[in-house]
Amino acid sequence: MTVFALLRVSPITEDDITPDVAAAIDALEEFDVTYETTPMATTLEADDVHELFAACAAAHEAVDRAHVQTLVQVDDKREVEMTASDKVDAVEGELGRDARSQREE
Fold this sequence. Notes:
The protein is an alpha+beta fold. The protein has three helices and four strands, in the order βαββαβα. This is Thiamine-binding protein.
């Protein structure tokens, strides 16, 4: 079984949230999950849904603020073995190119 999640932990504050986001990401290291952080959210991958939810809870709890919002979206592939990179590869195969902008930065 493979389970994926989109995780966004957002402290509600006027302050810079970078240290809070870093604390949430750092909390994931204690769990048997792989993850990749993007500017908008973190994608997690695990073999066990309970481990995935525990990691998400730890990330939420790692943010020491009075008001924290956490969004978790789960994709539970119960009958298919697939990695996150397999999903991206499938889209890129259909596109015939990388699934990212071709514009210069």
